[in-house]
Amino acid sequence: MVFEMSGGQKDVRSLANLSETASTSRVLNLGHVYRTHGEQAEYRQKPFFANQQMNRALILKHTLRANEQDLFTKPRRTTTKIILPFDPDDLKLGGQSILIGQIGYEAFLRNIYNTKAVAALPDVEVLRALDELPSLDPFLVREHLGRRGYRPAPCYLYITQADIARMIGFANGEIESLVREAFGTTMQQATLKLAGKILANELDHELDPLRMTLRLSTAEFSDGIFSWRGFLYFKWRYTELQGELNKVLNGLATYQPMLTRDKSVLEFLGDIRPRLARRISHAIVAVGRTLAIYDQAYLALTKGRDPAPFRRFLLEGPSLFFELGESIGILSHISSFWNYRMARVHRLQRLSAEEYAELLMDYADSLSALYIDDENTAQNW
User: Fold this and answer.
1) What is the per-residue DSSP string for 106-151?
2) Measuring CA to CA, how many Å separate 18 from each of 13, 143, 304?
3) 223: Cα separation from own chain's centroid
4) What is the pLDDT of residues 280-331, one digit of tens each?
5) Sequential DSSP letters for 198-209
6) pTM of this prediction?
7) 3-state secondary structure the chain
8) What is the DSSP letter of 64?
9) Each residue of 127-145: pLDDT tens digit?
């Protein structure tokens, strides 16, 4: 069973826009990677997917609409969409698309891989891992796949050296205090070495004192540390997003698209712009409150010498990690796609009112997935 895109003007424009930009936290653009790195040896030697067609796909985090819930046997809020372009060099022609786990998904895979035994395929395991993540942020994807032994070439999940350096510097500051507390040492070299193992997910016997301090099994410690590292990354990303989202909020208030005589479009823009600004602001505040849960647990351990809250965080953190990742992913997508579209507009011309309305509708659809009962969550902790 193959599902084709409708080919409507909105779908075509959206797909064409995606083809021109690299990956974001909501989009893994393997077609773009092929066009920019396809001649490199590492691209061919360590592919993301073994299947060539899949290795040029677009993978998106997708917010389910009401009429799409019937495609699944269990209710879902977000899922992962696979788009296989008919022509990777011309996405205006459309493509095949399907949601991971929807009715007909296995039939889609059997058709692509020309086999009935799809469950054991490494590519299918990679797709399953992607669907488990709250966003497609390159850092998270790389870490999550690495835990399963999948390590595609760096060109597929590109992270700038500057971002890596800033993130590691930020995370080291958080980890050093905890390691010093757990190991009772002020030796900077030893602290940095152990902090580096946590960041690199090298959970060997040297970290056993920390695991035993927190009274966790090896499996609990491994899962908890992965979530913790995700929280550290999200906390760093949250600080980076503040300025980026301020640009979006300012743009929502001031950007003027090309003139239109369509009153319905004008009314829509007049209504959605302030609503989006409020929704983005509320999401930023909610993310901050979720991160505060981690901060409280961390301070209880490092300042109050009480490991219980941090132990609870490591045990229950994975559920918060998903909610937080979904929120950060959507906000990052809004920021990066706004910057991309506005930079393109400055090079060419202003968006038409209709194109601008479609951009804001995409933001509204993405934000509709967010539901963080932050007040109750904070109280429960």
Assistant:
1) HHHHHHHHT-S--TT-HHHHHHHHHHHSS---HHHHHHHHHHTT--
2) 9, 24, 48
3) 18
4) 999 999 899 888 888 888 888 878 778 888 888 888 766 777 778 888 888 9
5) HHTT---GGGHH
6) 0.71
7) CCCECCCCHHHHHHHHHHHCCCCCCCEEEHHHHHHHHCCCHHHHHCCCCCCCCHHHCEEEEEECCHHHHHHCCCCCCEEEEEEEECCCCCHHHCEEEEECCCCCHHHHHHHHHCCCCCCCCHHHHHHHHHHHCCCCCHHHHHHHHHHCCCCCCHHHHCCCHHHHHHHHHHHHHHHHHHHHHHHCCCCHHHHHHHHHHHHCCCCCHHHHHHHHHCCCCHHHHHHHHHHHHHHHHHHHHHHHHHHHHHHHHHHHHHCCCCCCCCHHHHHHHHHHHHHHHHHHHHHHHHHHHHHHHHHHHHHHHHCCCCCHHHHHHHHHHHHHHHHHHHHHHHHHHHHHHHHHHHHHHHHCCCCCHHHHHHHHHHHHHHHCCCCCCHHHHHHHC
8) P
9) 999 998 888 888 788 878 8
The two structure tokens encoding residue 106: 């296995």
Q: How many residues does the chain have?
A: 381
Hunting for tokens 């992913």 — which residue is that?
Answer: 329
Q: Which tokens go with 178?
A: 């905890």
